[in-house]
Amino acid sequence: MQAHDPADDLALLIEAAKTAGAIAQIHFRRDPEIWQKGDESPVTEADIAIDRVLRTDLLAARPNYGWLSEETEDDAERLDDDRVFILDPIDGTRAFIEGQDSYAHALAVAEQGRIIAGVVFLPEKDKLYAAALGCGATLNGQPIHVSGARVEAEAQLLATKPMMRENHWPGGIPPVKRVYRPSLAYRMALVAEGHFDGMATFRPTWEWDIAAGAILIEEAGGTATDGQGQPLRFNQRHPQVKGVLTAPPKLHAALLKRRRR
């Protein structure tokens, strides 16, 4: 495999994210056509349009890359590719349908199972988060870092109510303040910028929901693992991971201890 600069892929993803945002805004709050997928989750004409345009543009720029997207039928050929685009055309489709401004576009590149570049873009909020391996993480071009939280009692954790039930925390429910935002990608971006201290979900999680957020957090100085503390691996045959736990390193260790007892 030839030497490769992740910053080159990041520049490509940033332009693609802006294209996605422009397409989304054509349909936002304009009653887009909606369908129900087999798992009962909604998809709109905006999701499909973004997926189609980005697949054409990105694979034209990187014809030797694989493709994994929520809105494209999966093709096992991606498993043979060293590098793969992983994206969610609209993360937070329900929020998009409801006219909320918290939907996001999440785009990433994985190299041999590890994310090397990622972008989370919220066009309605004009917030573009970006990170490439070894280059740090930014928000609208300015460096960002995870919070300095170390103590659970002082931490704000992004999670749904069911994630804070006793069965998920054998060592005791952590004394954090639970908060919530739509879109997994946006939640992870908020942790990367230090706006919140951590994020947890213990349900099986699709790779496209978390790929971009994972490198944002890691490049911002945080820790991102699956829900059991194992390293996140991407471009798997079945593209799901066993939940996600993210936080600054010492807080992550404290939370993980409660998960393992």
Structure summary:
The chain has 261 residues and is α+β, with helices and mostly antiparallel strands.
Walk me through this protein's architecture.
- The protein is of the alpha+beta class and 261 residues long.
- It folds into two domains: 6-143, 2-Layer Sandwich (Fructose-1,6-Bisphosphatase, Chain A, domain 1), CATH 3.30.540; 152-260, D-Maltodextrin-Binding Protein, domain 2, CATH 3.40.190.
- The chain is 30% helix and 26% strand.
- It has helices at 6-27, 45-61, 93-97, 184-192, 207-219, 249-260, and strands spanning 34-36, 42-44, 66-69, 83-91, 104-111, 114-122, 127-132, 136-139, 142-143, 156-158, 177-179, 198-201, 205-206, 223-225, 240-241, 244-247.
- The strands form four sheets. Strands 3-4-5-6-7-8-9 form a seven-stranded mixed β-sheet, sandwiched between helices. The protein has a five-stranded mixed β-sheet with strand order 11-10-12-16-14, with helices on both faces.
- β5 and β6 form a beta hairpin.
- α1 (6-27) packs antiparallel against α2 (45-61) and α4 runs parallel beside α5.
- The chain is globular.
- The mean pLDDT is 96.
Question: What are the defining features of this structure?
Answer:
alpha+beta, Fructose-1,6-Bisphosphatase, Chain A, domain 1, D-Maltodextrin-Binding Protein, domain 2, seven-stranded mixed beta sheet, 16 strands, Inositol_monophosphatase_CS, Inositol_monophosphatase-like, metal-binding
